[in-house]
Specification:
heterodimer; A: 88 residues; 5 helices; globular; B: 346 residues; Peroxisomal Thiolase, Chain A, domain 1
Chain lengths: 88, 346
Amino acid sequence: MTVQDDVVKVIAKELGVEERALKPEATFKELGADSLDLVELVMAFEERFGKELAAAGMEGIPDRDAAKLLTVKDAVAYMEAVLAKGKQ
Amino acid sequence: MKPKILSLGMAVPAWRYSQREVFEGLGYPRPFWRIFRDSGIEERHFAVPMDVARGLSWQEQQERYLVDALALSEKAIRQCLDGRDPKSIGCLVYGTCTGYPPGPAMPHHLQRRLGFGPSTYYLNISAQGCESGFPGIKRAYDYVVANQEPALVVNCELCSLTYYPEKPNPDPENDYECLRANAVFADAACAALVGFDDDWRHPTILETATYTDTDYLDDLGYVWRDGRLRVQLSRRVPDLAPVVVKPAVDEVLLRHKLLIKDIAWFVIHAAGSSVLDNIRDALGIPEEKMKLSRDTLAHYGNTSSTSVGLTGKRLMQEQIKQGDYMLMINVGPGMTGGATLGQFVA
């Protein structure tokens, strides 16, 4: 499983959409997410990637970072960066 | 001759909190800050300190309502009367959805404090939520037309005294309805004097219209839970607001052959930033004309039925021109929309 697979799985579950419908450029807003869905999505990322965030020295996804996660691609890139940071 | 709004008064309680302070005081998990941050609110006022409000039983909340709402309403009324004799008031309409004094009603208590005449007619509007300023103004209008005596419309909402302790905090079972309410609601009182004079700066009430769609009965309001009121505030309220507001607005404009672009001033219930956005988009209101309502939201939060009074009060200090039209827009449970068209003419 790649980071991308995991991120897509989390998004599909939280937003109630099929994984194959999740194109990288799709914005969460287009996928029907409101502000509360986005909060839950960030919390779901934190839960799924808790160990990876801790390894990168992060307690969670900071608010200023969360605000920049607008698309599926953004979320995948962000979690990949967190993983890379944790491995350094 | 049609009745006019002669004067407005407003009062907010002493406890002022930034949106960040409210969020931290409630102890919600950090990611939920986004909901508070994006609400369009910077600060809010509460009648009781947050730590006290959180520990009150339903009865204690309601006992505090009587004390604090009387003090706040008195302040707003005195400012509104501005030296006028309380005995000149023929009718007082009091609206709230956050306090349920078992009786005597709030107007009776206000008579004792302010000295309204013994023949003043009182009406208590309860449970019509954020929208109750509309039936208040409408009732005052009707009274003034029928009796040729001034009428006072008073609204006081102490939303902080309907705090519901969530277990767990926040409660996903309730679709975070309490959390969303806690992110926006606040306390205030306002008073409006309706009557006749020949000052063009006091807007004449030209027309009113209301529209209720009971398909959305369960989307907004309160329910009893564990001996308390628990808020109902569905996620689709921002989408539904224009659905009930637009027919009422269209009706008042049509009767006067006006378009949205003819309206100089908008006084819109400052429910939240997305409600304001959606009403703006549905009616085609330019963003610059949203400023008064957005400022109310930023500095006072959603003060329920009093919010239009707070915005109206500030409108009176704007650079109004003779002949300008104004439109007041209310929205609340039912769901119901209300529109009041006014014009600044002698």
